[in-house]
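Standup notes
- HV: blocked on the assembly model, inputs below
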Amino acid sequence: GAVVSQHPSWVICKSGTSVKIECRSLDFQATTMFWYRQFPKQSLMLMATSNEGSKATYEQGVEKDKFLINHASLTLSTLTVTSAHPEDSSFYICSARTGVRGNQPQHFGDGTRLSIL
Amino acid sequence: GESVGLHLPTLSVQEGDNSIINCAYSNSASDYFIWYKQESGKGPQFIIDIRSNMDKRQGQRVTVLLNKTVKHLSLQIAATQPGDSAVYFCAENSGYSTLTFGKGTMLLVSP
């Protein structure tokens, strides 16, 4: 149980392209979803938190116009990297949780490796 | 032995040994803790969690110990196997409904 699917698993595109990443909870309803960014050999850095049907809450330093998040249903959240540039290249990971309280586990997708040329 | 690399501490063990991975957390108000395992190129996988009203919890081959006095969390893996090789992260919920992740420890298991 608690399976989270993330798609695509990797993408390579030209600078200036917008890229959309999907995160789906397959066997549970995800009231809250999270988007993280991870650099090689480093920990996960939270980018934003989204609750179904409301606007995402972005962490300090994360540009909301650059990283558009939509959480339109209890099983789907999307992250769109707009006008991507090489510095946006990274490993992006989503997670999902059934409730809004923090004392419940988050379940993670397998990440999307984004490479901008 | 344990060594500290440029970014990621590494613990090297022999197959069959018991492994202990340590984590110091920062917020005394944190009430919930999780250990995750991350294999190369994949997302973190839930291993075990513990709430602050407990000091020990056991799973299959894993045990988590919580010492609130010194704000320390540990993950013990019994009879470590090569498939246990991965990066292990501790995470804490400090009351803001999000998790704060530790820096991670790489576990290398030699056959």
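- HV (later): unblocked. The mean pLDDT of chain A is 93. The radius of gyration of chain A is 13 Å.
- Next: hand off to the docking folks.
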